[in-house]
Amino acid sequence: MLPAIEHTCVSVPKRPGAAVGRAFTAMPRNGRRSLRLLGFLLCIVLVGACSSNPQRPGEPALSSTELSEFLTLAREAQVEGDSARALFYYQEILTQRPRHAEALSESGLLLLQMGDLMQARPLLQQAQAQRPNDARLREALAVTDFRLGEHEQTRIVFEQLIANREAGWQSHNALGVMADLEGDYQAARGHYQQALALRPNNPVVLNNLGYSRLMARDFSAAERHFREGLRQSPNHSRMRINWGLTLAWQGRYADAMNAMQPPLDASAAANNVGYIALLKNERGIAMRYFEQAAAQSPRFYPRAEQNRLRALNISGGDGS
Question: DSSP readout, 40-75?
């Protein structure tokens, strides 16, 4: 699965951003080669450098049997959802067979899933050079470039994939994020709906669609999409915060506080709710939430106090 392009959550819904990759822990399974594999863990974070060396000094090349064994272990790890272990075995192959097509493509996809864009990109480029007609690799490389800020270049790729009926849900999702960045919320909604047609109930797309409707001030639709997404992924931190912001925009401040805790602590939630109230010109409510945020957390005090003073200045000093 490709990594998600996902809207960030902020105190005020302004523009979307990119998703953050997951962190994994490697755990080799094969006891017969455990010492050799554990030693390789020291260089797994230097994927680019390790994969460029065809063979480590003093070590015999992988035999066909060993290659087959490592491929089997890598594929099994992927099926089990253990991305770090899968990456470990693919990288072991690349240390001695640096042009191995499957190891290149799967290593690049796994690193992209983990959020390591700079390490993923050259591996995906090498893999695509060997498999220029592989739509999955084209989409993955475009997702990488999009997350690195190359929006216009990747737009062309995503649109070509869609025109050729080779696009996955990520192409539609990315075009939806681009449309949101341009303020075209109607177009964004269409792209997200196409993404959901390919991947029904995907929480990432539901979060993006909800955030798009939030920016369009269609609060009831935004809340509906966030609720749908949270049924699929109850611990989705960004979506919970976005849901809370949506409730605050509807004046349901107590519900908003509950929705955002966790992942936010009470101080951060109160500051966010207060800021939405301030934007709605409900200055008295905003003041109370800023004061609550400052009182609950000395660490949070400077930011909440700054917002409180802003509300006080706007209100002319009476806090009403």
Answer: HGGGTT-HHHHHT-SS-TT-PPPPHHHHHHHHHHHH
